[in-house]
Amino acid sequence: RIVYVNGQYLPEAEATISIFDRGFLMADGVYEVTSVLDGKLVDFAGHQVRLARSLGELDIAAPCSDGELLAIHRELVARNDLTDGMIYLQVTRGNPGDRDFAFPDPATTKPTLVLFTQSKPGMADSPASKTGIKVISIEDIRWGRRDIKTVQLLYPSMGKMMAKKAGADDAWMVEEGHVTEGTSNNAYIVKNGRIITRQLSHEILHGITRAAVLRFAAEAQMEVEERPFTIAEAMAADEAFFTSASAFVMPVVEIDGAVLGNGKPGPVARRLREIYLDESRKTAV
Ligand code: PLP
């Protein structure tokens, strides 16, 4: 695999960053995951806008222009012959020298920029999307700025392991009695044809897929209500699903052991997945 590190395209075994990099020492960095379908980038513009916002919130300088970032993404797709999969991008505050909680003026530290590809052949027809997946609920104990896409992923990663141990696929996190989001996705339920998902705030990541799916739902005259919901409400819902750049629209068929509807992916989730994939293919760059 050829990866990108700070201006260079290298075989992955030759790519290195400093052990003093604040991304490594302090999770002082942000990331984006962009899907690739048929060799093209899905919603590239959306990811770039969110990346710029994440960097701005943390006062990390932009590593390069949007045009250059697009060129790097495309070069990696080409060099790795990537048809279906994803591109992971990470920007950290870089290596200011000694380890120190205080960080220097962003104008004087060069951010670290790393990108790599992951191939996922057939991702648009994944078996999970046909059967639906199971989630458990866990307490949301993450920090209070989940709208910034930082690389502090230890708790979501532990949540995923808790789900696996419980025989499920993922965990939905609950704060003050209401679902915030999944470990790496935004959560939705459907009741009487109405799609319910938590409103945007500092409590959740502003999903790029979420924005697109809600737009498509509105265009298809589906009813959408943006508000928090409880696990009890989710267990009694007609269907549920989640969205993320790498899983698109994923049906959820079981929550904390309660089977939703007939235990199969529901019509709303299936329809939104189809629309999302169709539209994404049309607008991919
Ligand atoms: N919420 C969290 C916590 C995530 O980590 C992610 C994606 O990684 C999402 C939501 C979905 O965001 P997107 O649709 O932009 O991938």
From TrEMBL:
Cofactors that this protein relies on: pyridoxal 5'-phosphate
Biological or metabolic pathway of the protein: Amino-acid biosynthesis; L-valine biosynthesis; L-valine from pyruvate: step 4/4; Amino-acid biosynthesis; L-leucine biosynthesis; L-leucine from 3-methyl-2-oxobutanoate: step 4/4; Amino-acid biosynthesis; L-isoleucine biosynthesis; L-isoleucine from 2-oxobutanoate: step 4/4
Cellular-component GO terms for this entry: cytosol
Claim: Metal-binding is one of the keywords in the record: no
Keywords: Amino-acid biosynthesis, Branched-chain amino acid biosynthesis, Pyridoxal phosphate
Domain of life the protein comes from: Bacteria
Pfam family, one: Aminotran_4
Enzyme class: transferase
EC assignment: 2.6.1.42
Gene Ontology molecular function: branched-chain-amino-acid transaminase activity
CDD domains, alphabetized: D-AAT_like
GO biological process, one term: amino acid biosynthetic process
Classification via Gene3D superfamilies: 3.30.470.10, D-amino Acid Aminotransferase, subunit A, domain 2 (3.20.10.10)
Entries under SUPFAM superfamilies matching the protein: D-aminoacid aminotransferase-like PLP-dependent enzymes (SSF56752)
The keyword Zinc is assigned to this record: no
Catalytic activity, as annotated: L-leucine + 2-oxoglutarate = 4-methyl-2-oxopentanoate + L-glutamate; L-valine + 2-oxoglutarate = 3-methyl-2-oxobutanoate + L-glutamate; L-isoleucine + 2-oxoglutarate = (S)-3-methyl-2-oxopentanoate + L-glutamate
Protein task: Acts on leucine, isoleucine and valine.
Similarity remark: Belongs to the class-IV pyridoxal-phosphate-dependent aminotransferase family.
Protein name: Probable branched-chain-amino-acid aminotransferase
Organism field: Pseudorhodobacter antarcticus
